[in-house]
Write a structure and sequence with these properties.
- By secondary structure, this protein is an alpha/beta fold.
- The chain is built from 13 helices and 14 strands.
- The longest helix is centred in the last third of the chain and has 22 residues, at about 365-385.
Length: about 450
């Protein structure tokens, strides 16, 4: 039973990019979504700050701490937004049932922005200025996050977890109000740094691919540009033989660029791109008979997607494909944390009348919401443990003082104003043998979750 659950979860967890990062829905889970009923929006009875420079205390009443998000819970992205908020609510229920924050319960105020950027900005302003939430938690989707980051930083409202990996989230040494943003899931720029580290690290212990000359194939869209920027940022940490090629994400073949990498003797190719151009790249490598190890972003780490590339002859023993992953339920700790998530999710569903057949307890988007909730609550626990008054300034400071453990994942740190998203990632490959139970080729762990620093230390 454990192996079957792990197989299902690996197929879901490794595509944990979330459909919110795409233009159209991507692989929604086959669970039938049930409506989520969040706390109804409305003004809280919190006071206005005394002066513009005083620490902001809002969204905190005698018995409640209000948090908020806007997420698409109708339309094409409802299959993402509904389970996402369900996972967030499950994390809040567990915390509240255990006594909350000094007796205060944490409640979610939610608006449905329909994955529309302008609507997302309007609702974000409503949450901060009218509902006066203490924090934004699970800020949802590329459109809304991109449209609201400047506004969020102008206010200083804490934002924990953005359901996207856009480059605008990446900050080294953020200070002042810029430090209010706490991204979690991988950001393109940070993941690019990890991809180079994994490409270069020794293959002997599975930490890397042992590349001696690295080829980088990057699309010119946001995803490719962000990943490429990360590769170049990490390359400044040493002297390496790297050849860069940029390509149009909408092109139907990349034979010229890949022939350049092949003729240059690149033994590892870093593919800085999303799924569609990645398929084009692998098929083009097949067509020019270019055999090299290939490593790419977690957004392409779907067992079903990579299985199709094996069927096309684009992934072979001589042309293996590797991808990162920021959750790992194959370890004992990860598996136990997955079981804890499932139990908390089922308890929330039972309380809210969701039938077992409609459970989100193996839904990757619910896991995302759960992670968002748990990390926000960890920040609250740090404020309490440090004996601080609960306000924006102290919450941000507390989050910078301690590493956060991501349920089913590794650790993430925000010290020194770094806002890189998670850089502790696992490394997986796709099996060339069909799993008789699932009917597809599984993702197989090559290396457990390791921090960027730990991987990079093995290169020198």
């Amino acid at each position: 039973m454990k192996n079957r659950v792990l197989s299902i979860l690996l197929a879901a967890v490794m595509i944990f990019a979330l459909a919110a990062c795409a233009k159209e829905p991507v692989n929604p889970d086959p669970v039938n979504p049930s409506p989520v009923e969040p706390v109804q929006p409305g003004k809280t009875d919190t006071p206005e700050p005394a002066t513009p420079d005083a620490p902001v205390v809002q969204g905190v009443t005698a018995d409640t701490i209000y948090i908020g998000n806007t997420a698409a819970t109708s339309g094409a992205f409802a299959a993402v937004g509904i389970p996402f908020n369900a996972g967030l609510e499950a994390a809040l229920k567990t915390y509240n049932d255990a006594g909350g924050y000094q007796g205060k319960t944490v409640k979610l105020v939610h608006y449905d922005d329909g994955f529309d950027a302008a609507q997302g900005l309007t609702y974000t302003k409503t949450l901060v200025e009218d509902d006066k939430v203490f924090a934004l938690v699970g800020h949802f989707g590329t459109n809304t996050v991109g449209a609201t980051l400047d506004y969020i930083k102008s206010t200083g409202v804490p934002m924990m977890y953005a359901a996207t990996g856009i480059s605008e989230l990446y900050q080294e040494g953020a200070s002042g109000k810029d430090a209010c943003v706490f991204p979690v899931q991988p950001i393109y720029d940070a993941e690019g740094r990890v991809l180079l580290a994994r490409a270069l690290a020794s293959a002997e212990n599975g930490a890397g691919l042992g590349g001696t000359k690295i080829g980088v194939l990057a699309t010119t869209d946001d995803a490719g540009a962000g990943l490429l920027a990360g590769v170049k940022r990490q390359a400044r940490e040493g002297s390496f033989d790297i050849l860069y090629q940029e390509v149009d994400p909408s092109a139907t073949e990349y034979t010229a660029a890949l022939t350049m990498l092949k003729n240059a003797g690149c033994d590892v190719v870093i593919a800085c791109m999303n799924q569609a151009p990645f398929q084009t790249a692998l098929v083009s490598m097949r067509d020019v008979n270019y055999n090299a190890k290939v490593i790419t972003s977690y957004v392409s780490a779907s067992a079903a997607f990579l299985n199709a590339l094996v069927e096309l002859g684009a992934v072979t023993e001589d042309r293996p494909v590797y991808a990162t992953a920021w959750l790992d339920v194959t370890t004992e700790q990860g598996y136990n944390e997955m079981l804890a998530f499932a139990a908390e999710q089922l308890a929330w569903e039972a309380e809210n009348g969701i039938a077992p057949a409609d459970t989100y307890s193996i839904n990757s988007y619910a896991m995302a919401g759960y992670v968002a909730g748990k990390l926000f609550l960890h920040g609250l626990q740090e404020v309490e443990a440090q004996g601080l008054e609960l306000n924006w300034e102290n919450y941000i400071a507390a989050c910078e003082k301690t590493p956060f453990h991501i349920p089913m994942g590794g650790d993430i740190r925000y010290a020194g104003g770094d806002r890189l998203g998670v850089t502790a990632l696992a490394l997986n490959t796709v099996s060339l043998t069909v799993n008789e139970t699932t009917g597809i080729r599984d993702l197989v762990e090559v290396s457990p979750i390791l921090s960027l620093d730990d991987v990079w230390a093995q290169i020198h």
